[in-house]
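Re: the 121-residue chain
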Amino acid sequence: MNVPSGSPPHAERASQKLAGSGYRLTITKDPQCNTRVIKQLVRKHVPGAETISNVSGELAMSLPTEEESKMPSLLKDLSEEKDRVGINNFGLSVTTLEDVFLKVGAADTDEDLEVGVMMLL
């Protein structure tokens, strides 16, 4: 059995390629949340933002590393608009290797999985 290996910087670059993102924006929604408006607000600042999940009381979006210069204005806007759009709380984190492995684990075919693992090598 082959086990992926590599230096931490190599693994980080591979994780960004595989996950398609450098950052994860997690938003805790209140019951009156308008998810469509939140997504529009996020994409106004970071056009490359993609929805990872939108379940129950949480919305998670991936934000590309290339657009990190736009994130301070995004976070300011989210803070100012949180009551209007129904945000309880939000946080920004760096994409983790766990996110990468979850994405690899969700691969539809063995070929997708093989490509994902090869990117980590």
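The chain has five helices and four strands.
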